[in-house]
Structures are given as structure tokens and as C-alpha cells.
């Protein structure tokens, strides 16, 4: 049986040993710098079980990134509200994740589709050590509603399995991180399917890992719960490309979480 408590162990460590640190939002945090978790995607899908996650928001947000979108209209059409606080009156967020993934503006005027390129490289040059995607476009960060938190990821192929490591510079452990782990694990499974590989490990690496001061009660409740086994992800068909997946293609089976826990988000 695989351990399914990596996230809770991480949360407990930061809750017990984090340093008091003020932050941009004025909320205040308990924070540790530098942490890593590893999830073997062969052994289950790392959806946090100690609270119920809104998987609909996670799937739609990932499909929205893959569209190369910078407006929350797609999310709204699908009743996902997680980006509302950061959008302007037209629903725009500036050149955020999706834009950099799909059409990074190069100095010579080209627009680079990093997702298509990295998939092509995984298929044709799997030993490459350059299988990277970056959302941190230094020249555009100040035009974004929020500079990317999950900012850089790298793929790795060995023995027919595709692994992915994410670097996340800033990590809201209670609200953001469960979404981020699930989202990149899902992306890894999708890209593996497209490339005829099995999913390997998802490695999560965090920079400023923090628990907001107004999440302490929620964290105590969550840490009092025993983690349960992870669910399994079923992808019901193999679409023609990474851009053709639909919400209905995904199903999590045997997801048996504890009840949801509400918390305010720091804006
Ligand atoms: N402070 C902060 N934390 C974040 O995690 C975060 C940001 N800001 N800004 C940008 C995005 C938006 N993300 C969000 C935003 C909201 C939820 C949230 O409210 N989650 C609730 C309800 C989910 C839902 O209704 O879909 C949860 O209980 O998980 C999660 C991630 C992640 N990011
Ligand atoms: O995917 C995400 C997006 C955002 N966050 C969190 C991390 C921080 O708490 C805030 C961003 O504030 P900064 O001052 O820009 O660091 O949002 C996350 O955990 N995951």
C-alpha cells in the first residue's frame, strides 16, 4: 500500500515549524523555504483525501490553461469561480499561464507553443534533458494579474514512464497546493497518454511554503483526520491531441474524501 499522507506531513511540518512572516496580502503566514514531495502516479492519483477537493474546478482550470486563454469567460461558462478575484472588469488576467504555455512571445516576433514543442520532444527525443516549460516570462510578469506561482516544469522519460517536476515559487498550502498537485499530476497522465508512455512520478518542489494565519483552525481540523487511500484516474478515451481533451474524459474512481473545509482566500 502506498503512503497517501505526503501532503499532510508537509502541512504539519510547516504548521509546527514555520516562521512567522508577513506577506503582500497583509494576512500574515507561517512559512518554510524549500520543500519537496514525490508522488508515484502508478500507485494512485494524488488527490488530497483529508478534505473534499472540487475536482471540477481543477479539471476545467487545466483545460483552460491548455487553451492558451487569458480571460475567465471559459471558467465562468463552466461555473468555475477560482480566478474571479484577480480578473479585471472584462474578465482579463493579462498574459498568464495559458498564454505563456501556448504562445510565449519571443524577441524576434515568433509566438512559441511550449506545450506542443515539449510533447514533440518527448516523443522524438525522450532522453533530452531540456524538456522544460516556463511560465515565468521575465519581460511580461508585470502585465500579469498575478505572477505565476507554478512557474516552471520539466519532464523526464525512463523505462517507458513519464515523470514531471514542478517548481512552485509560492505555495498557499491549505487552498492552492492540493489544486496544484492534482493539476500537474493530471497533466502528466494526459501527456503520457499522448506519448504512449506510462505515468511515472510527479515531483512537487516548493519555494515559499506558507500557511495563512486565517487558515489555522482549518489546518488543525484537517490534521486531525486520517488520510485515506488515493483514488484512481480513468481517462476514458485517447483524444487526437493534448488540446482535444474534454471534461467528460476524466473520472476519479474510489475517491472517498473527508468533508470539504471552507477557508477565506488571501487576495
Ligand atoms: N492566496 C491565494 N491562494 C491560491 O491558492 C491562489 C491565489 N491566491 N490566487 C490565484 C490562484 C487561484 N487559486 C485558487 C483560488 C480559490 C480556491 C478555492 O477557493 N478553493 C476552495 C473552493 C473551490 C471551488 O469552489 O471550486 C476549496 O475549498 O478548495 C483554490 C485555488 C489558486 N491560486
Ligand atoms: O496556483 C497557485 C496560485 C497561487 N498560489 C498562492 C501562493 C500565494 O499565497 C499567492 C500568490 O501571492 P504572491 O504574493 O504572488 O506569492 O497565491 C498557490 O498556492 N497556487
UniProtKB/TrEMBL annotation:
Its EC number is 2.1.1.45. HAMAP family: Thymidy_synth_bact (MF_00008). The keyword tRNA-binding does not apply. Residues 5-267 form the Thymidylate synthase/dCMP hydroxymethylase domain. Belongs to the thymidylate synthase family. Bacterial-type ThyA subfamily. (6R)-5,10-methylene-5,6,7,8-tetrahydrofolate binds at residues 54, 172, 266. It holds the Pfam family Thymidylat_synt. This is Thymidylate synthase. It comes from Parasutterella muris. One of its GO terms (biological process) is dTMP biosynthetic process.
